[in-house]
Design a protein that fits this description.
The complex is a heterodimer of chains A (276) and B (431). Chain A has 276 residues and is an alpha/beta fold. Chain A has 2 domains: 115 residues, D-Maltodextrin-Binding Protein, domain 2 (3-Layer(aba) Sandwich), CATH 3.40.190; 125 residues, 3-Layer(aba) Sandwich (D-Maltodextrin-Binding Protein, domain 2). Chain A is built from 10 helices and 11 strands. In chain A, helix 2 crosses helix 10 and helix 3 packs parallel to helix 4. The longest helix of chain A is centred in the N-terminal third of the chain and has 20 residues. Chain A is globular and about 75 Å long. By secondary structure, chain B is α+β, with helices and mostly antiparallel strands. Chain B has 2 domains: 55 residues; 357 residues, Beta Barrel (Porin), CATH 2.40.160.10. A 16-stranded antiparallel beta barrel of chain B has the order 1-2-3-4-5-6-7-8-9-12-13-14-15-16-17-18. Chain B starts with a helix and ends with a strand. The chains are: A alpha/beta (276), B alpha+beta (431). At the A-B interface, helix 1 and helix 4 of A face strand 13, strand 14, strand 16 and strand 17 of B.
C-alpha cells in the first residue's frame, strides 16, 4: 500500500514535470568572444524578420558558455573549440545526452603583428617556440633585433585552448599578457611595434597578418576565404554552436536559419568563412 | 600757430611718457607674472614628481597583489553537503529504536591546486555526522609529450564507473550493493596511469594499489600490490542522437594468509593452505552505457562483475586449532550487476529506476548460504534541480532477500521476505 502511494506520488510529479519541461520563452546564447559579433548580427537580423522571437546574446568565452550549457543557464553555447571529453561527461551526468555539436562557421586563427614589423611569415614550430618562450627575439625569425612581446587570451577562451592544443602544444610562456577578448589583443599589437597576438580573423583590423606555414619548406598562406576553404591555411578551425538536446521549436528554426544561405552570408559579412 | 605747435609738442611728449609708463608697467607686470609662473612651474614639477613617485609605489603594490591573486587563482574550492531524512522498514528497526532520522550523509570540501599547466593536487576531507575522514589526497601529472596521458598518485577512487561517479551527480542516493561490497570506501592508496583520449574516444586506466583499503587510511599488509585495469570505448552517433560507452575491467590481487592456514571455500568446505600463501582476489567486469536524445536525455547504464573475493583471517597465530578452524580465511565466488534507467524531463526533473543484484556466494544457496544471501534491490528515485547549486531527491529502495533459516525478521520468523525498504529525501547543496 505504502509502495503504491509513493509510486503514485512519483508518477504525478513526473507528469507535472513533463508538462512544464518543454516551455521556452526566449533563446539565450552565451560563450565565445570570437563569435560574439557574429552571434549578435545573426540575432539582430533573425529578430527583425521574426519579431516574436527574442534572442539574447552574451560573450564571456567558450569555457564560460560550455559551463552555462552544463548548468542549464543558456540554451545555445557558442564555442571556438570543440567540447572536451570531460565537459561531455558532465553533460552526460546531468542531462544524459552527449550534447549536439553544430559547426556554423569557419575561422582562420590569425597571427597579428604590428604594421611596422618586417616579419612576413612564421612556421607552426616558430609560433610554438615564440609562445613557449624559446624564441624571444624577432631577429631569430627574420625581424629586427628586438624582444618579442606576447599577447594572448584568458584561459576561459576557446581560442586560447585551440591555439594551445593545435599550435603551442606545450605550456604558454609566463610572459604572455592575457587580454579579455580578441579586440583587446588586436589593439595591444596595434600599439606595440614588437608585439604579436592571435585571434579570430574578423577582428584583424589595423594590424598586419603574418602568413603561416606548416613547416620551413611549405608554402605560407594568409587566412583568406580561398586558403581556408581549401584547408590550406594551417590554423583553420570550425566555430560551433552547442545544444544540450537536438533542437526543437524556435531554437530549431533559428539554427536552421543560421545554416541557411542567408545566415551563412552574414558569416562572410562579419569576416569569417561559411561552413558550406 | 605757435601755440598750436606747442600744444602738439606737449601732447606728443605726454603720449611718449604714457607709452613709457605703460611699457614699464607691462614689463613690471610681466616680470612679476613670469616670476610667479616660474614658481608655479617649479611647484607643478614637484607635484608631478611626487605623484609619479606615488604612482610607482602603487604600481609595485598592484604587481605584488596581482602576483598574489594569480597564486590564489590556482586554488579552487568546491564541495557539497547532503542533508537527508530516512524512514526505515520495520525489520531495519530494533525495539525502541527510531523509525526515521535526519542526518548529514556527506559534507565535503574539495581543494584543488594547479601550480602549473598539467599538474594538479587534490585534497578532500569529509565532515559528515560523527565522521571526519580523508576521502581524497592525490596528485595528477600530465605526462610531457604524451597528450592525454596522466599519472595519479595518492589516495583516490578505484577505476570503476559507479565508484568514480560522484555521489553529487549520481542518480540514486547510494551505490549498488555489489560495488559497496567489493570496493569498500571506494578509494585506494596507490598509483594510476590513465589515458583519456581527445581525438580517440578511449579511456584506459591501470592502477597499482595496496588492496586492503576499507575506509580508513591503511598501509599495505603484504608486499604484493593489487592491480586494476579498465578500458572503455565511447562511440558517438550524432545524427541519431545516440552515444554508447562500453568497456571491460578486471581486478587482479590477493590476500595473504598471515596467521591461519585454514580456508573456508565458497562451497563451504574447510581447506588448508600454507601460512604466507596468497588467497585469490580476482574478478572481471563488463560495462555498457547508452545515452539517447529522446525528448530530452535518456540513459540505460549497467555493469556486471563476477569473480573470486577473499577475506584474510585476523585471528592470532597462537590460537588453538579449534579457534583457527572457527575463524578461517574465506574465499568466495561472487557475482552481481546493476542496471539504471534514467530519464530527464526538461532542465529540472529526472526520473530514475534502478535494479541491482548481488550474490556474495554463488556456490551456496538456501539454508547452506546462511547469512551470505543474495539481494535484488529495486529503487525508484526522482531528482529536482532547483538551480545550479540545489538538488532535491526522493528515493524509495525495495530490497528483496534470499529466504533461508538464518534470515529472521524483527519478530524472529525465519524464511521470510524482510521489510527493509527505505524511503529517503535528500537536499544537496553544491558549490
Amino acid at each position: 500500500m505504502k509502495i503504491n502511494k509513493i509510486f503514485s506520488i512519483m508518477l504525478i510529479a513526473a507528469s507535472m514535470a513533463t508538462a512544464t519541461a518543454f516551455s521556452q520563452a526566449k533563446i539565450t546564447v552565451k560563450g565565445s568572444d570570437t563569435m560574439v559579433i557574429l552571434a549578435q548580427r545573426w540575432a539582430e537580423l533573425y529578430m527583425k524578420s521574426n519579431p516574436s522571437a527574442t534572442i539574447q546574446v552574451t560573450g564571456g568565452g567558450s569555457g564560460v558558455g560550455i559551463t552555462a550549457l552544463i548548468n542549464g543557464t543558456t540554451d545555445i553555447c557558442n564555442a571556438s573549440r570543440p567540447m572536451k571529453q570531460t565537459e561531455i561527461e558532465k553533460l552526460k551526468a546531468r542531462y544524459n545526452t552527449l550534447g549536439v555539436q553544430i559547426p556554423c562557421a569557419k575561422d582562420g586563427v590569425t597571427i597579428f603583428l604590428n604594421e611596422a614589423n618586417k616579419v612576413e611569415a612564421l612556421t607552426l614550430k616558430q609560433l610554438s617556440d615564440i609562445y613557449t618562450g624559446k624564441i624571444r627575439n624577432w631577429k631569430e625569425v627574420g625581424g629586427n633585433d628586438a624582444e618579442i612581446r606576447l599577447y594572448g587570451r584568458e584561459n576561459s577562451s576557446g581560442t586560447y585552448t585551440y591555439f594551445h592544443d593545435e599550435v603551442v602544444k606545450a605550456d604558454y610562456a609566463a610572459s604572455v599578457e592575457s587580454l579579455p577578448g580578441t579586440a583587446a589583443v588586436v589593439n595591444a599589437v596595434k600599439k606595440d611595434v614588437n608585439g604579436i597576438g592571435y585571434g579570430g580573423a574578423a577582428y584583424a583590423v589595423g594590424v598586419k597578418h603574418a602568413k603561416v606555414k606548416k613547416d620551413a619548406n611549405a608554402t605560407a598562406y594568409l587566412p583568406t576565404a580561398e586558403s581556408i576553404g581549401k584547408g590550406e591555411y594551417p590554423i583553420t578551425r570550425f566555430l560551433y554552436m552547442y545544444l544540450r538536446n537536438r533542437p526543437s521549436g524556435e531554437t530549431k528554426k533559428y539554427v536552421d536559419w543560421i545554416l541557411s544561405s542567408e545566415g551563412q552570408m552574414i558569416v562572410t559579412e562579419v569576416g569569417y568563412f561559411p561552413v558550406k | 600757430m605757435l601755440s598750436d605747435f606747442c600744444t602738439m609738442i606737449i601732447i606728443q611728449t605726454k603720449e611718449i611718457n604714457m607709452k613709457k609708463i605703460f611699457t614699464v608697467a607691462v614689463l613690471a607686470v610681466m616680470s612679476v607674472y613670469g616670476f610667479s609662473q616660474t614658481q608655479k612651474l617649479d611647484s607643478l614639477k614637484e607635484s608631478i614628481e611626487n605623484h609619479q613617485g606615488k604612482l610607482n609605489a602603487l604600481d609595485e603594490r598592484v604587481l605584488v597583489n596581482e602576483s598574489d591573486l594569480a597564486k590564489l587563482n590556482k586554488i579552487k574550492v568546491s564541495g557539497y553537503i547532503q542533508s537527508q531524512w530516512e524512514y526505515y522498514g520495520k525489520d531495519l528497526v530494533k525495539t525502541n529504536e527510531p523509525t526515521n532520522t535526519f542526518y548529514i550523509r556527506r559534507a565535503r570540501i574539495k581543494f584543488t591546486y594547479e601550480p602549473a599547466d598539467g599538474v594538479k593536487f587534490v585534497l578532500q576531507p569529509d565532515f559528515s555526522t560523527g565522521n571526519l575522514s580523508l576521502k581524497d589526497a592525490y596528485a595528477i601529472v600530465n605526462i610531457p609529450k604524451l597528450n592525454g596521458w596522466t599519472i595519479w598518485a595518492g589516495q583516490f577512487n578505484r577505476p570503476d564507473y559507479e565508484v568514480e561517479y560522484s555521489s553529487s551527480s549520481r542518480e540514486t542516493l547510494e551505490r549498488s550493493r555489489l560495488i559497496r561490497a567489493i570496493y569498500p570506501g571506494e578509494r585506494e592508496v596507490g598509483a594510476k596511469l590513465e589515458y583519456s583520449g581527445t581525438n580517440v574516444p578511449v579511456t584506459f586506466q591501470l592502477m597499482a594499489m595496496n588492496g586492503n583499503f576499507t575506509g580508513a587510511n591503511a598501509k599495505d599488509v603484504d608486499s604484493k600490490k593489487d592491480i586494476m585495469a579498465r578500458f572503455v570505448y565511447s562511440a558517438k552517433m550524432p545524427s541519431a542522437g545516440l552515444g554508447i560507452d562500453f568497456g571491460v575491467n578486471g581486478y587482479f590481487g590477493g590476500n595473504r594468509a598471515k596467521t591461519n592456514k585454514y580456508v573456508n571455500e565458497s562451497n563451504g568446505t574447510l581447506d588448508s593452505v600454507k601460512v604466507g600463501d596468497y588467497l585469490k582476489k580476482q574478478w572481471f567486469g563488463g560495462e555498457i552505457r547508452i545515452y539517447a536524445d529522446v525528448l530530452g536525455g535518456l540513459a540505460l547504464k549497467g555493469e556486471y562483475i563476477a569473480g573470486t573475493n577473499s577475506t584474510p583471517s585476523i585471528i592470532a597465530a597462537s590460537s588453538t586449532m579449534a579457534q583457527l578452524k572457527a575463524s578461517p580465511n574465506t574465499v568466495r565466488n561472487f557475482s552481481g550487476y546493476y542496471l539504471y534507467f534514467v530519464k530527464n524531463l526538461g532542465l529540472k526533473h529526472q526520473f530514475v529506476a534502478k535494479y541491482d543484484f548481488y550474490d556474495p556466494n554463488t556456490k551456496l544457496s538456501g539454508d547452506a548460504a546462511k547469512s551470505e544471501i543474495w539481494y535484488k534491490t529495486f529503487t525508484l528515485a526522482w531528482q529536482y534541480y532547483l538551480n545550479d547549486n540545489i538538488r532535491i531527491s526522493a528515493q524509495y529502495e525495495m530490497p528483496q532477500n534470499e529466504k533461508n533459516a538464518s534470515i529472521k525478521n524483527i519478530a524472529g520468523t525465519s524464511n521470510v521476505q524482510l521489510n527493509d525498504n527505505t524511503f529517503s529525501v535528500r537536499v544537496q547543496a553544491k558549490f
